[in-house]
Amino acid sequence: MTQTKPVKFYQLRVFLFPIFKRILDIIGSLFLITLFSPFMVLAAILIKLTSPGSIFFCQKRVGKDSQPFLMYKFRTMYTGDNDQRLKQYPDLWKKYKENDWKLPINEDPRVTPIGKILRMISLDEFPQMINVLKGDMTLVGPRAYREEELQEYAQKYPESIKHIKIIRSAKPGITGLWQTSGRNDLSFISRAKMDASYIKRRSFRKELLILLKTPFCMLSRW
Predict the structure, then answer these.
(1) Which stretch of DSSP H or E encloses residue 176?
(2) Which one of 5, 83, 108, 110 is CB 3.0 to 4.6 Å from 103, fit for a cystine?
(3) What is the DSSP code string of 14-57?
(4) Helix (H, G, I), strand (E, B) or coil at 59
């Protein structure tokens, strides 16, 4: 009798968690959209006034069970061939490739002045709340990767393939375990391990702790 209670409790928790998570996603995203709507309107106006092109940046990303979806962000880069723009700076292009296709915001010539500010305060990611409401994304989850990105990482880091497989099984999130534990200064292997660890061990408590830590991590970047 004492052995069946923990099993039943675990089964109940597994059943209830997706329901809890979806309710949290809907309430949380609606609250954040309402709270930050003035800043989002201001961001849209500044993008339009300072750089030609669309206000939003849309790109295919890998969703749950490897299903592609269109992710929304505020546009933070210049329009046109930005890789070619970066190649004009050989040292930065080399650093970009060696650093798993990332550059510090202040060093990236592809990013507009307004884009740098939006990225620093993570406001560029707020349109992803629409993805959360649609069910493509969740508030807390692994990073939303591009398909080519995951394939390239799998070739470059074969030891990450087992982690990538787990990451593909879950909805990507706006924030997550590694974003609140080190952000972009972590290597891909470290990020993949942390994302996979979160997926395997996610719980009500961990979900709320990550959400509570996220604003402080955003403020620490200023």
Answers:
(1) none
(2) 108
(3) HHHHHHHHHHHHHHHHHHHHHHHHHHHHHHHHHHHHHSSS-SEE
(4) strand
What is the mean predicted confidence (pLDDT) over 133-142?
A: 97
Q: Which of 172, 137, 165 is nearest to 151 (CA)?
A: 165
**Which of these, 138, 122, 135, 16, lies nearest to 73 by C-alpha position?**
122
Q: What is the pLDDT of residues 138-159, one digit of tens each?
A: 999 999 999 999 999 999 999 9
**Are 73 and 57 a contacting pair, CB within 8 Å?**
yes
Distance in angstroms (rounded) separating the CA atoms of residues 70 and 128: 10
**CA gap 171, 199 in Å, rounded:** 10
Q: Name the one residue in this structure whose structure tokens are 């209670």.
A: 5
CB 149 within 8 A of CB 184: no
